[in-house]
Amino acid sequence: MRGGLHAIWMSCFLAGCGTPPPSEVVRVDGSSTAYPLMEAVAEEYMRTQSGNVRVTVGVSGTGGGFKKFCRGDIDIAAASRPIAKEEAARCAAAGVAYVTLPVAYDAITVVVHPKNTWAEELSVAQLRRLWQPEAQGALLRWNQLDPAFPDRPIHLYGAGADSGTFDYFTEAVVGRPRSSRGDYTASEDDNLLVTGVAGDVGALGFFGFAYYEENAHRLKAVRIRQDADAAAVSPSRESVMQGRYRPLSRQLLLYVNTQHAQARPQIANWVHFALKQAQPLIDEVRNIPLEAAAYEHAFRRFDAAIAALGATEVVAAQPTAKLGTVDVR
Amino acid sequence: MSASLHGSSERAAFLRRRQRNERWAEWGLGAAASLAVLITLGILLTLIIESLPFFQAVGLWDFLFDPEWTPLFERAHFGIMPLLSATLLTGFIAMSVAIPLGVVTAVWLSEFAAARTREWAKPALELLSSIPTVVFGYFALLFVTPALQKLVPELPTFNLLAPGLVIGLMIIPYVSSLSEDALRAVPMNLREAAFSLGSGRLRTALWVVLPAAVSGVTASAVLALSRALGETMVVAIAAGQQAQLVFDPREGAATLTSYIAQVAMGDVPRHSVAYQSLFAVGLSLFLLTLVFNVAGHWVRNRFREAH
Question: CB A182 to CB B77 under 8 A?
């Protein structure tokens, strides 16, 4: 919540509220999980451009980001889950064309307080029993989850309903996206969730891996057991890259508005920069990098999408484009 | 003769002009005064109109008696009790700090402090209310809660105790300043009568002056309570945002105000029930403060002493 407000202020401050921003502004918004990476890329990029380009990074949550993206308000949506059918339909209705590029892995990390000695590992089935809507107001104590756990209240902290982490977690754990109990501390601000779990021995929460690593000294990550005969796996760079941390590992994605990118080379530049520099910056913000080949592949796919759009645009829109230039200038 | 006639017509013109000017002034003052009333009515009307579709969708019975509040989730419940319980509990904690400390401060300022001490002590105290509430919020979260965790074992990060205590500190100036005015307005002859009957200063202050000023002290308490119930930032930061029915101040919970702050900042679509719930919650807060104000008014009239 505080992050959202901050982002509003920042974007008002940087881009000017209400007035159309100048073309040298690149506007990124969306996932709070991807925010540290986006912010780092933006900062580095602005440094290389010696202040001629401004990149604004908002934290509306993945869902909030897609809403703005499909209205054409922003150039790039950072997402912690793939775009949903309804969202894609909204983009199509508004004539927004885009290309999807993976930039990093994330592991949704289930955390407890360091003094929690009982929940070293949890199965997906247990997480489902804990988070499904039926648990609302019913599963309230640790020993209801497992009789071996102590008889004390369980306090839940998790991503808010606007966040891609919420969508992804509910789909992976409960089985249907956005299907969750509602009686927990829900926030799009991951720092608030960190603070909550770090100060509460009876707490259990979930959020992106980067926020866990950043605060690893005051949190404990729970090992996740995918099913009864699988081994429990703790979230880490290795387990995610080897595909063993399931079902809670996912890709962070960039959705780039191709029309904007074609019209304003700065956006394409920024995307190139992000894909080239992702690896070192990902280490800095403690996300998990993709394989090197994946970045090259994304790079080519992005260029191909822009080139394809350019070709069709020129053929289809030549007469009107001429009229347009006459009218405007 | 003609001169006096002339004079009287001039005088009549002057009177007419004065009357006209006074009517304008009266009208202007009246308009200024009614503006506040009109704005209040406008807000009330907006709250009622915007929350009507909510009550059509949810129903008053569920709103008042459902013990769960989860409007953004799959199993949507719209019971106001969780938010109300957190609001009242926070208000109660705040008042149990602010009333004793505020009244004691007021008695000291009015009856014991030397005039020179009072001259700097009162403004210094009022400075407390010029600190932004967001600062009080982080003070509660980052200082008061960790301190309380040493006293109350296993107190969660988000609880109602710390923000309640901090709001209590925050509203002390409301109680102390207005109470002090009320105490000072008690006529000197009451004190002199008490002294002449052999009472000491403390006895006079507590048994003569304070009872005589009780209506003013009540007014200050009602104002402070309204302020406490309407406080947003401190609870939004330090009380957590989980709507749950609470009776234990060690638990964290969302209040009426922090729910509004949380949802208004998000991307809730307009015309959804979750959006309309904002107005229903706002209306509840309005009615709650209204009830306490009316009660305060009644107490004030009941115990008013004419001097």
Answer: yes
Residue B49 forms part of a structural domain: yes
Burial B198-230 (b: 16+ CB within 10 A, else e): ebeeeebbeebbbebbbbbbbbbbbbbbbbbbb
Q: Is residue B71 part of a domain?
A: no
Rounded Cα distance between A190 and A231, Å, is 28
pLDDT value of residue B287: 93
pLDDT digits (tens, 9 = 90+) for A226-240: 987 889 999 999 999
Q: Are both B51 and B135 inside the same structural domain?
A: no
Q: B134, B113, B137: which is closest to B125 by C-alpha?
A: B113
Last residue of a domain, one of A205, A221, A247: A247
Amino acid at B239: A
Number of domains in chain B: 2
The per-residue pLDDT for B225 is 94
Note the pLDDT of residue B234: 94
pLDDT at B301: 84
Final residue in a domain of this structure, among A180, A212, A247:
A247
Q: What pLDDT, on a 0 to 100 scale, did the predictor assign at position A320?
A: 35
Q: Determine contact: B158 vs chain A, CB below 8 A.
A: yes
Containing domain of residue B193, as a range?
A: 81-302
Residues B140, B8 share a domain: no
CATH code at position A291: 3.40.190.10
Is this prediction's ipTM beyond 0.95?
Answer: no
Q: Rounded to whole angstroms, what are the CA distances from B262 to A127, A162, B46? A: 26, 12, 20
Q: Which of A183, A187, A219 to mutate to test the interface with B (most CBs of B within 10 A)?
A: A183
Across the A:B interface, residue pairs with CB atoms under 8 Å apart total 88
> How many structural domains are present in chain A?
2
- Give B148: exposed, middle or buried? Use CB within 10 Å, 0-12, 13-18, 19+: middle
* Residues on chain B touching A200 (C-beta within 8 angstroms): 156-158
Nearby residues of B286 by Cβ (< 8 Å), 6 or more positions away = B43, B44, B47
Quote the pLDDT of residue A76.
95
Pair A268, A230 in one domain: no
**Does position A6 have pLDDT exceeding 60, yes or no?**
no
A194 and A152 fall within a common domain = yes
Side by side, the strands of the sheet bearing A185-187 are: A185-187, A155-159, A203-207, A109-112, A220-221
Who among A181, A188, A200 is closest to B156 (CB)? A200
Q: Compare B10 and B281 and report the one with higher pLDDT.
A: B281
Spatial distance between the Cα atoms of A142 and A147, rounded to a whole number of angstroms: 8
What does the block give as tokens for B288?
């709650």
